[in-house]
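ARCHIVE CARD
Drawer: 12
Card no.: 0347
Subject: one protein chain, sequence and derived structure
Cross-reference: see card 0346
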Amino acid sequence: MRILITGASGFVGTNLSKLLFASNFVIESLDIEQSITKLFISTHHWENLDNLDLDQCDTIIHLAGKAHDTRNKSDAQSYFDINTGLTQKIFDKFLESDAKKFIFFSSVKAASEKVFGDFLAEDIIPSPVGPYGESKIKAEQYILKKIDENQDRMVGKRVYILRPCMIHGPGNKGNLNLLYKVVSKGIPWPLGSFDNKRSFTSIDNLSFIIEKLINMDIESGIYHIGDDDPLSTNQLIGLISESVGKKSHIWNIPKGLINFFAKTGDKLHLPLNTFRLQKLTENYVVSNAKIKRAIGVNKLPVTASDGMVKTLTSFKNN
């Protein structure tokens, strides 16, 4: 089976390509980088998209995009140029081709910046905040609109819009690495009294789901992706400490005192303020019930803890 992966040189693309290659899929790459590896039978540049023949591809996995910049230093328009614009172009090519499946990597941030209630499910009315989530939801809306307008071209085709929460695995970059560096230096975590829980997505579980979508006749739709169980920040710090062979230092400072410090930070423009405290301590749990029903499993193959340990071990080795 022939697969085209856009953004194959990125963190998710690199890991996914290796796993699909090991499963004997024939892989092509569409990227801004044209490094030839033994994984790909051919590589293509986005500049040549108009001349790219997708008729020989069975599945297109669209990973290419601009990642969420948590420091807010990126130009807002660049998110829409890349996350929305490139998606529109590759999906139009898919509609015109004989390819049967299109897998688009959106994000839970396209659904909501916060989780109201126990968990985030697919039936939520999207309310993204900021250019990253907004550019992703615009891409989703474009795909759904095109499907409605081209029912004749959609015969025999399947389209999957995936909204994963934070993906991690070997080569992962971002906030998880920052927390790892802090904890590995023995710096205490002062927010232990906030037992917040967050969902993560192991690259192994993600790849397992992608293989199922490729090989099975799953109903088109929007699917949230995450590990079976969320992890609290305190659990995560414990796993990091264990991975580096150190005792975890978690301070259970009373919440009232922490909130006082945060409000003081608002007035004095200190690193800890109410907004940052909220982001560090809020719950963000994502339901994966719909995708598990679709692929016919009760549990994903890798537990949240085991997947995280594998990622942390890769940090240590590097």
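Annotation on reverse: The domain at 2-173+201-227+287-299 is CATH 3.40.50.720 (Rossmann fold). The longest strand covers residues 158-164.
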